[in-house]
Amino acid sequence: MKLPKTLEKVSEFFKRLPGIGKKTADRLSLYLLQLPQEDLEAISKHLTQLKKTVKKCQNCLNLTEEDLCSICQDNKRNKDIIMVVETPLDLIAFENGQIYEGVYHVLYGKIDPLNNIGPDDIFIKELLTRIRNNINEITEIIIATDPDMEGEATAMYIRDKIKEIDYKERIKVTRIASGVPIGANIEFADYMTLKKSIQGREVFK
């Protein structure tokens, strides 16, 4: 038996989302059908406005509805230390644990030659420009890319590029410690693991 055409269209959309198979997509579609009409209209409104209102922070590229995200606007944050993360979800993982008081830079990916993703396809140039423009203020760059092969390649590329800019080695470049298991994704790590990874970070040579 096939779902009615409208439900089928909704289910097809859900199947395009990461980690959603046909059965889950069908269940979600049927669940939406049970919601009051006003809830569906509210969801529709927010989805329609999503790309119009949410944008990237002009400083760190975190998601925001203003020119600067709440972290970059916070004068209590230590602006001398920048943590480099792959995605906004990684940033949220560190923020949820309240274990880090510096600021961030979001790459939106990692170098992955097998999938044709090179340094120019993620926001590395923006990071390097930010470092170059604040070379006398920044004291440390923490590279917090995932500890898998692609994350390591990205971390090494960034480290080498920073060395080219900071030839006097005024900025300490560190890598999160092995509190995060090899091959793991930061967004799924618990806050104590992330806390240990920051506390145990080492100079990235």
Quick tags:
205 residues; alpha/beta; Dna Topoisomerase Vi A Subunit, Chain: A, domain 2; 8 helices
Structural class from helices and strands?
alpha/beta
Domain tally: 2
Tell me what the CATH architecture of the largest domain is: 3-Layer(aba) Sandwich
Summarize model confidence as the mean pLDDT.
90
Query: Strand order across the biggest sheet?
Result: 4-3-5-6-7
Q: What ranges have pLDDT less than 50 throughout 5 or more consecutive residues?
A: none
- Give a count of the beta strands, DSSP E runs of length 2 or more: 7
Strand content: 5-15%
Helices, by number, come to: 8
- The helix/strand order is HHHEEHEHEHEHEHE
The coarse silhouette is: elongated
The gyration radius over C-alpha positions equals 20 Å
Q: Roughly how many Å apart are the termini?
A: 60 Å
Give the biggest beta sheet. 5 strands, mixed
Helical percent range?
Answer: 40-55%
What is the CATH class designation of the largest domain? Answer: Alpha Beta
Return the CATH topology of the largest domain: Dna Topoisomerase Vi A Subunit, Chain: A, domain 2
Molecular structure report:
By secondary structure, the protein is of the alpha/beta class. It has 2 domains: 5-53, RecR Domain 1 (Helicase, Ruva Protein, domain 3); 67-203, Dna Topoisomerase Vi A Subunit, Chain: A, domain 2 (3-Layer(aba) Sandwich), CATH 3.40.1360. The protein has helices spanning 5-15, 22-34, 37-53, 70-73, 88-96, 124-133, 149-165, 191-199; strands at residues 55-56, 63-64, 78-85, 102-106, 140-143, 172-175, 202-203. The strands form 2 sheets. A 5-stranded mixed β-sheet has the order 4-3-5-6-7. The longest helix is centred in the N-terminal third of the chain and has 17 residues, at 37-53. It is elongated and about 70 Å long. The mean pLDDT is 90.
